[in-house]
Amino acid sequence: MEHAPTWLVNSFIYLSAAVIAVPLSQALGLGSIIGYLVAGIAIGPWGLGLVTNVTDILHFAEFGVVLMLFLVGLELEPKRLWSLRRPIFGWGSAQVIACAAALAGLGLAFGYDWRIALIGGLGLALSSTAIALQVLGERNLLRTSGGQAGFSILLFQDVAAIPILALLPLLAASATVDGGESANRWLETLRIMAVIAAIVVGGRFAIRPLFRWIARSKTPEIFTATSLLLVVGIASLMQLIGLSMALGAFLAGVLLAESEYRRELETNIEPFKGLLLGLFFIAVGMSIDFGVLARFPLQMAAIVLALLLLKGLVIYLLARLMQVPFQERPLLTLLLAQGGEFAFVVFQAAANEGALNSQTTSLLIGAVALSMLVSPLLLVAIDRWLLPRYAKCSAPAMAEISEPQDAEVLIAGFGRFGQIIARILEATGQHCTVLDHNAEMIEAARRFGYQVFYGDATRLDLLRTAGAGQARVLVVAVDKPAQSLEIVELAREHFPQATIVARAFDAPHWHKLRDRGVQLLQRELYESSLLSAHSVLELLGHSKAAAEQTIRQFREHNLQMLESMRPFHEDQAKLISAARESRRQLEEQLAEQRRQTRQDQPD
Fold it and tell me: Residue 434 in contact with residue 450, Cβ under 8 Å?
């Protein structure tokens, strides 16, 4: 009887281990990551020995991290990424430099050669992007200040891995750089710049027409294949020139964040990302060298403890300087204190360059893997024993909406805008479903007798549960413009039967909502500002009728101006010119109105 292919046997082993270990880990309250890591230990060389080619599997599984960074990039428009440049390069560089200096200093204090101490400090300063973003995403914390701080630091670490790898040959004992090597490095730099430029230009001008052409074929599987081809191609290009595959995928995601195919790309890639990330965690579990742990248990324990404690202390102090809310600091500190997947690459490359011997390399790689294994366990401990003490000063934990609703009106957001609408509807006997993600607001609303469900309206599954599929009207009243746009996009794509009534924060947000087809929208504070202007005019001696006419004329003129500016609202120069011309026209109209009023008055 013919034997099954190796890849088929290995696939069966990985899937079986995950199916058994992950649900058990979830049932014990330990989370899915612990389940994957334990599954890897069980089937790896130091467990049942069912799989031995750990290095090959780890390289393949790193593609899960690549897909994750691509999806993160899809959530960041270039403007938003540019707005994060200071925390990325400011706080990110501060974290890497401070942690590397602290860890290298400790190594020097214990008598290690300065080269080994520096390589160890630089590698251990990097954190696990896979685990950190997975945990932040599962808890819907990426949009919080702590989540944004963590993301900025992790993104800088991916960038910092490049110069760290370039530095390794210089730190090797036998490293010599002659003129030829210097010239080669200049050529390498030019090649890197050319590839990055090609990705940026291609993302802007070539990829969108490609997806448009593929979409016209109306073949979903080919669109999925094209999505994966895009990520694989860019990751391969980046690896070819010695850069981070994940960084290249992230850059591609950012370039496509404003694309009309963003949602389709997310839907197609998400399942692959989840499976490959699971495989990555399994491979990390398999990579833990328990042989080194058995030979040098005290050294291994010392490195892991020094890594978590020293790095954690530095990150906690940085979180305070970054003004991260103290309720979010323990989670952020733990997620960034662990070692990261890029440390495997750094230490292996250092060994290949002769900068580290095999024993030191095994100790460092084992310490990183153990820290990634221990961190989810510490996360469980923090959730159970530390965070409840912080909860006195934070929002109470709440269960998300789980019972399907069927009201005709769904209101997303129960702030000052959503509250007024909900109160009027309830007063007229019209039942509505209200969804909000602020636990404190929900508790306050419930004390006053209002039923508000806890849930993030940017999640498609929660919108379905809240009854968006049956609702006649969807009121978008959330407190953040980016979230409101995301909800509108989901509703337009998945719930076309619902008429959207939206809150606009200002004129730019108004334009973005109109670009997405929203017709019924009201700018925040606009009408109340007009009423206040009406009162001021009366106090200045205008008659009530004259004040009302002025306000009415201003309202009509302002709305016409906004509509006329829509085609070029992203062109700052044209926008300023049109605004000035509109203001001049309004002044002339009101002056003419005053002249007409004086002529009509009897002498």
Answer: yes
Q: Are 326 and 316 in contact (CB under 8 A)?
A: no
What's CA 324's distance to the chain center, in Å?
A: 17
pLDDT digits (tens, 9 = 90+) for 501-512: 888 877 777 778
The answer to whether residues 186 and 333 belong to one domain is yes
Residue-wise DSSP of 179-204: HHHHHHHHHHHHHHHHHHHHHHHHHH
Residue 1 in domain: no
- The number of residues in the chain equals 603
Give me the domain span that covers residue 587: 525-603
Tally of structural domains, the chain: 3
- 378/449 same-domain check: no
Q: What's this model's pTM, rounded to 2 decimal places?
A: 0.55
Q: Which of 226, 209, 72, 98 is nearest to 152 (CA)?
A: 72
Nearest alpha carbon to residue 268 among 547, 538, 74, 37: 74
Q: How far is CA 207 from CA 71, 214, 219, 325, 456, in A?
A: 16, 10, 17, 40, 31
What's residue 99's pLDDT? Answer: 92
C-beta atoms surrounding 132 within 10 Å:
24
Separation of alpha carbons 488 and 263, rounded Å: 12
Burial 499-537 (b: 16+ CB within 10 A, else e): ebbbbbbebebbbbbbeeebeebebbeeeeeeeeebeeb
- pLDDT at site 169: 67
The answer on 400 and 352 residing in a single domain is no
Considering just the CA atoms, what is the radius of gyration of the chain in Å? Answer: 29
Q: Tell me, what DSSP letter sits at residue 245?
A: H
Let me know whether 137 and 246 are in one domain: yes
**Distance in angstroms (rounded) separating the CA atoms of residues 468 and 433:** 9
- Residue 131's identity, in one-letter code, is I
Output the domain CATH number for residue 81: 1.20.1530.20
Q: Strands 453-454, 473-476: parallel, antiparallel or unpaired by DSSP?
A: unpaired
Give domain status of residue 355, yes or no: yes
- Please give the average per-residue pLDDT across 32-48, as a whole number: 79
Residues 63 and 167 in one domain: yes
Residue 281: pLDDT above 70?
A: yes
**Residue 120 identity:** G
**How far is Cα 465 from Cα 404, in angstroms, rounded to an integer?**
5
- 60: Cα within 13 Å, side-chain hemisphere: 13
Q: Where are the alpha helices (DSSP H) in 28-144?
A: 32-43, 54-74, 78-83, 85-86, 92-109, 114-125, 129-138
Most confidently modeled of 1-10, 39-48, 567-576, 594-603? 39-48
User: Using one digit for the tens of pLDDT, what is the confidence trace for 338-377?
Assistant: 888 778 778 877 877 777 887 788 888 888 888 877 887 7
Q: Where are the beta strands (DSSP E) in 324-407?
A: none
Per-residue three-class SS string for 409-441: EEEECCCHHHHHHHHHHHHCCCCEEEEECCHHH
Phi/psi zone of residue 218: left (φ > 0), alpha (ψ -120 to 50 degrees), beta?
A: left
